[in-house]
């Protein structure tokens, strides 16, 4: 994959496939990507306390981004 896109909420795939430039039609769900990333991080960290702190920090950032995105959507609709 040269790049990923998210045309369908929670799913990603090759950006150039949409334009017929790549034969990779694979689509992957966000939860599968996150599972793979966290699984590798667990192996790399191999320290439960560090993984817990990282997971909590990531969840906090995701909530913040979701709030910002929701606020942006509300602002856009209010125009």
Structure, explained:
59% of the residues lie in helices and 11% in strands. The protein contains two helices and three strands; from the N terminus they run βββαα. The protein has helices at 30-45, 48-78, and strands at 4-5, 11-14, 27-29. The longest helix is centred in the last third of the chain and has 31 residues, at 48-78. The protein folds into two domains: 1-46, no CATH class; 48-79. The model has no long low-confidence stretch (mean pLDDT 80). The radius of gyration is 17 Å and the shape is flat. By secondary structure, it is mainly alpha-helical. Strands 1-2-3 form a three-stranded antiparallel sheet.
Major sheet size, sense and barrel closure: 3 strands, antiparallel
Oligomeric state of shown chains:
single chain
By DSSP, the count of extended strands is 3
Number of helices: 2
Strand order of the largest sheet: 1-2-3
Q: In terms of structural class, how would the helical and strand content be classed?
A: mainly alpha
Shape: flat
Please mark out the parts with pLDDT under 50 across 5 or more consecutive residues, or reply none.
none
Question: What count of domains describes the coordinates?
Answer: 2
**Helix-strand pattern:** EEEHH
Strand content: 5-15%
How many angstroms separate the termini? 37 Å
Radius of gyration, whole Å: 17 Å
Helicity, as a percent range: 55-70%
Q: Mean pLDDT across all residues, rounded?
A: 80
């Amino acid at each position: 994959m040269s790049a990923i896109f998210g045309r369908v909420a929670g799913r990603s795939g090759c950006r150039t496939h949409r334009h017929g430039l790549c034969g990779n039609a694979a689509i992957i769900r966000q939860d599968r990507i996150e599972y793979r990333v966290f699984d590798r991080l667990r192996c790399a960290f191999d320290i439960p306390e560090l993984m817990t702190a990282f997971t909590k920090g990531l969840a906090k950032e995701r909530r913040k981004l979701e709030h910002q995105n929701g606020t942006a959507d509300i602002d856009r609709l209010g125009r």
